[in-house]
Amino acid sequence: MTQVTVNLTDTFEDWRVKTNQICANQGDMATLTTTNKSSLVAAMNEVDATSGLGNLVEDTSPELGANLDVLDKSIITSTTNGNITITPDGTGSVVIDGLSHPQADGTTGQFLKTDGAGQLSFATVATDVLGDTSPQLGGSLDVNGQSIVSVTNGNITITPDGSGKIVLDGMSWPNALGSNGQVLQTNGSGVLSFTNQPDVSSSTVGGDISGTVGAAQIVAGAITNTEVDASAAIAQSKLSLSITDSEVNASAAIATSKISGAVTSITSHGLASSATTDTTNATNISSGTLNAARLPATIDTTTVDFGNWTITESGGVLYFATSGTNKMKLDASGNITVVGNVTAYGTV
Hints:
By secondary structure, this protein is mainly beta. The protein is built from two helices and 15 strands.
């Protein structure tokens, strides 16, 4: 189209000529393809109305040519209770504010979790500690009257991290093994540690004990009658003391096998009337007297040993022997038989 320039200095005639020239250059309105040819404005309005969409709903396959800026508006649906569906193509994901959502639904009861790098995924909720492979406490564990137990013969292991210690009821336990034979000791401030046992074998003792720990002895006189049980059996070799009459019960029966050494004196109060004698050797009585009432009426024996001589009863006959050879016998009829000479009225 030829451009016609109209100047402000043009005369009316100039303007008329130029305007007619413009109309001539535009052609006849009858040649317009629009339906409405009544005027140029009507034709242009018809072109404007048919050259684009009056509403987005008229586009059955809309595509964005750039980012959709909602300004201060919202994306809503006018359909009652209608859903807003966002479906990416193929393996694409729905990304909302940098978070990539899963491309498929999870199973019943699962929840969304993030990997910390913008990727969301479905995961199963741990309904007990067993299902949590790395459980952590969010607060103090209250056992609520219950116990912490293990499976059959299973250990219960408590392992603090690094140089941390196990603290039980305020007592801090060592975090390393001690040596064989060591014992636990406290510093009095709640800290336990392993230490060697003190060697007290050479330490001295006092009080009723004398000597060292390794060779202790009871001090003489430290044990009195009241401290010995009536039924106690104490070997004579362990005793270095004397027993007085008042310390022996009147009904006591002491076997001669339990008495070593010589019996120096047994008086009328030395043996109870019910006491019996065993085979007490006469040589053990070196002095004093033995009350006849303390001896039995008969001696239940067939041989009396006098040292060099013995008297033996056999079949009602008494045999007198020396050095094991019979020298004389006395029968029940009073007859005396000797192996040597008999001297009458001699001097003995």
